[in-house]
Amino acid sequence: EYLPSIMDDVAKEILSWGSAGGAGRQSVYDGVARVIPIFTYNLYFLWTEVLIDVAYQFPELVDLFGRFPIGPGSLPTMKRIAAAIGEPDIDPTLLVTKLAEMDFETGLTFEGKPLRLSAENWEGVGCEFRKYTNLKEGKGRKRLYSEHK
What we know:
The chain is mainly alpha-helical. Helix 4 crosses helix 6. The chain starts with a helix and ends in a 13-residue tail after the last helix.
């Protein structure tokens, strides 16, 4: 019953990021920080996912290449990358931004133009790397494919 009563206020906040005189386009990290006080519940993961979806539909409001929250699944990989580049103390939410700014050849193109990995993509890469590293080391859980019948 709470969600319908608060969503008008949350939507107004998010829409203000694109308005003249508004807060301006937000990174997911900053957007979550702006939404949580309005929503009043500390559901950071939920709002990270919602703002990712908003960014896909309204890129003028949310920037997936900006500072991005790091989930616990990605954190070990981000720490490994930070150590490997000689910046072990960098905030992981800023590391993914730095990675997104790299001129990294993905091999992916859209309409003939090369695609870069966003901060959101890098966070996901970190999570997947950790998952498969855990499996290689005999930790974690196997995710076996089976057809639903």
